[in-house]
Amino acid sequence: MAAVIILMSVVILTSYTGARWAIEEDAAANLRSAVRLYERSLQEQRIELAREAVRVRDDAEVNDYTFAAVRIGADSQALERVLKRRYSRMPVDAILVFWKDGRAVLGDDAQRIADEVSRWPGETSNSTFYVERENALYLIAVVPLDYRGEQIAQVAVAINLGSRWLDRQDMSLGMQLFFERNGKLFNDPANHFDHEVFDPDRRRITLNGERYQLATVRLPAADRSTTRLWFAQPEKVMLETLGRYNQIMIWLAIVVFSIMVPAALVAVNRFSRPIRKLITLTQQMADGQLPDLRRSQGYTEIDRLLNHFIDLIAALRRKQKEVEEAHEALVLSSITDELTGLYNRRYLNEVFPKIFAQANRDGTCIAIVLLDIDHFKKVNDTFGHHAGDCCLRTFSDEIKRIIRASDYVFRMGGEEFLILAAGRSDQDAVFLAEKVRLATENCVVVIEGEAVKFTVSAGVCNFSADMSSASGLSDYVTRADRALYEAKQSGRNCVRVYQGDTRHSLQAPHRC
Question: In the predicted model, is pLDDT for residue 212 greater than 50?
């Protein structure tokens, strides 16, 4: 009887816990959904701001007056009058046209950010960034201004993500948006949060006796900004829902206990005897055994249960085999690169100490050849990423064809590869790198009927395994990388060897 009551209590408690979790999870999902909505809104705001900047930049009259100010030395106030006349009603807080020795501004907030914006480097493409001021955060879009093919200035359009912007947001059901910087809240349109000390780790805040759940609204392209935007959702609705559910669960528990306890007593008494017959078999399974049983031909409950138990044992045997096979496949996938089938950087870190120790015992040298495909980005940009993948696979096959069975080749990432070879002399390592370079130079990959050729640069580092172990793998790879850098600087398609402060090449560089 006691066991039945405990069982029913556990069932009801589990149901209650699951429902409570579902309600809380639904509230969390609503919070995440609202956050994503505002993140999309901010992204659209960023795009729209960039369009406004382009609109100003493409204005012919603005172009002419900017050219006059930059190249002729005309007064920038004329340009400011043009901006005021044409764009005073633009829904932004500041417009700036700036060049090396001057600027023209429009808007009450323009002077607050003019110095910061004027220091922005002369970019040849559009960009956006943030400027932080006391109790303010400005989103700024900057575009280059070209006059007859020559960049002469830059146009910046800014909007203050402050109280005016927050006022325009839809805050239904008591929800709130506010900015926080270094634990201090500001720019709250309803003056609910001013001067509140905020702890971001809690993700909750209590205001006027009401608790709020908090989530960060990610500001697009604001990696270096210390200001964060928070969305606050009141917990009142969720708590009211939980209260109603508590009452339902209390009445449900009363009904369930009054009906199910007598029925459970009958059921337990009926099934306890046949279940005890299976205790011995389950004990064998607990001891790690999978007994081989014959199927029963009877039709009673215990016979059906026994047959299901036999099926379970057979399924466990199959699952055990599947787990072993999956484990082997997982181990292999964790140390290999999916695209090329080569070993990855993780396996390099695992195998290097073993190779170093073996070379130390044998008294042999170890060579590291670092390879980087030249101008690989151009291959991707010209022929597409599918062509780039084909080139990587073809290059990997060429390396595997050239190296010895005792050598290791790894894909370090992107178009960079590494060969780890023990027992090779300095000249052998250089010849290996040169062999790979020549094979790559003569390799042709055909993509949709079009021939794609590429070259590779190599950096070689050869060292003795009896050196002090204070120089680890990263030091040797760094040396090879320096040699590779020298190969790149020498025109690419060549081999360079690291030897202290001196680099040597096998031949003159070959340009792609």
Answer: yes
